[in-house]
Amino acid sequence: MKSTTGKFGKTPHQPSLWTRADALKVHADDPTTTQPLVSANFPVLSDEVFIWDTMPLRDIDGNITSVDGWSVIFTLTADRHPNDPQYLDQNGNYDVIRDWNDRHGRAKMYYWFSRTGKDWKLGGRVMAEGVSPTVREWAGTPILLNEQGEVDLYYTAVTPGATIVKVRGRVVTTEHGVSLVGFEKVKPLFEADGKMYQTEAQNAFWGFRDPWPFRDPKDGKLYMLFEGNVAGERGSHKVGKAEIGDVPPGYEDVGNSRFQTACVGIAVARDEDGDDWEMLPPLLTAVGVNDQTERPHFVFQDGKYYLFTISHTFTYADGVTGPDGVYGFVADSLFGPYVPLNGSGLVLGNPSSQPFQTYSHCVMPNGLVTSFIDSVPTDNTGTQIRIGGTEAPTVGIKIKGQQTFVVAEYDYGYIPPMLDVTLK
Ligand code: FRU
């Protein structure tokens, strides 16, 4: 690959840009890119815990994998506190909204198993208390390594700081269920460097998390995607011609959009085991457009690289907007250039009548999209809501060239395996 010199120095690639012009094409409620309404009568996985980000066990090529016929998912999880005086309102009623909103601060990694790819049974915590070096266990990816059932769990160790880490353990199956063993030694991999990726010192609202390792189907090397922000002091970023794109007359004003600096990061492994990583410049930046491109992941299809990432309405910059949901970009080679799917990037967003119904979508290579239920209105005015903290109905999309289409809806939390591994 030819080296070029640009904003990120002399590197093999320059990031692709999600521009303000692209984002102007985002339209909520287009039926081909809108998640069907989630009913307020949804079932919950558990009355004891909230779950949100869901991480299906998969192999390094991205295939969702069951083990001896058992499907396994990992979830970010937090206890529900219906009887804790701290979460009672003035009338003595459980303030579930506050409990739910506080969950990030006590997120722990749990796992669940199933024979059917749904109806998940709680396995328990992945790591014992005290194993993870920080308070919060944030999102990542569990990778099944081999027929011995070894698993590398990549995740984000947060507070203090934000470090991409991994921990190795093993899946053990019986005819009655699944248990995870090991997961006792957490290895720090890397943190934001302040040169390509923004650090906490540069911006207290920085994002650096959500590792998604994969093998490039074309060059066979081991890489990792992650969420970041573009390096630099908060407020110092420039939203110039390139970031604005080709906008109509009257759309040149960028307001305070210099504060929105999301990017999709990438690192390459220096070793086969993925213990030693080198960060590369981002694949995609959204400076002037959006402040969060979370949980980035790929689907490799038809020789193309489909890059998906989740984002929120509240993280959009001045003058652009879009629904909470999953956005996508496509390229012919790993390092791009990436173009937004459907012209805008929007792949599956919440309907405007239920803007917070789901989040944290993960597009699987079989076209199924899993997410969690956040909150669903229970009356017509939208003032009364029911908190989810559970799996949303799975949605089927079809990916065709530079377009995607919603084509199906399945049961709550339906995550069928794409291949089964028999343990030796
Ligand atoms: C997405 C997310 C992730 C993060 C986790 C924290 O829902 O914001 O980026 O790892 O939730 O709870």
Automatic annotation (TrEMBL):
Q: What reaction(s) does this enzyme catalyze?
A: [6)-beta-D-fructofuranosyl-(2->](n) alpha-D-glucopyranoside + sucrose = [6)-beta-D-fructofuranosyl-(2->](n+1) alpha-D-glucopyranoside + D-glucose
Which keywords does this chain's UniProt record carry? Carbohydrate metabolism, Glycosyltransferase, Hydrolase, Transferase
Q: What class of enzyme is it?
A: transferase
EC number(s): the record gives 2.4.1.10
Q: Where are the transmembrane segments?
A: none
Q: Which Pfam families match?
A: Glyco_hydro_68
InterPro entries in the cross-refs: Glyco_hydro_68, Glyco_hydro_beta-prop_sf
A GO MF annotation of the entry reads: hydrolase activity
Q: Does the keyword Glycosyltransferase apply?
A: yes
Give the family per the record.
Belongs to the glycosyl hydrolase 68 family.
Protein name stated in the entry = levansucrase
Provide the species name: Pseudomonas salmasensis
